[in-house]
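Appendix B, record 7
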Amino acid sequence: MATQRVIGFHYTVHDEDGEELDTSLGDEPLYILEGARQVVPGLEREVALMKVGDRKTVAVTAAEAYGIHDPSLVLRIDKSQFPDGTELDVGDQFAVDDDEESPVFTVLSVEPDAYMVDGNHPLAGRDLVFEVEIVEVRAATKEELSHGHAHGAHGHHH
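Structure tokens (predicted):
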């Protein structure tokens, strides 16, 4: 098996309409452990092919980003299903359990006796465009491999 690498890169991501959604510019680069699914698959596949100093525009389809919007994850949940005293507002987010794989639900609307919620990622169904610049590529440390994530520049910290 090939040595797993840590890839450090700066990025700016836009949606299909050109709206900037996030950027690392002016902050620390993003460091990922190759193969650990820390960024969307379409982006990871491209940055893995790049070397330090490379810059590239990477178009990522919704399916290769946060997935296709799944209408079955838009639900009407009776308020009686929540613990007594729960008060949620539009935009609030919650998870049903502590499982890393379970969806995070966002409250879409509040009705007198129910909440309309969406378990899709907020960017599900949207194509994304990343501007990336690779700033570091190195072998992952034993500690990073055991933790399953990169520890930043030169492996020093979380």
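Remarks on this record: Helices lie at 41-47, 142-147. The longest strand covers residues 128-139.
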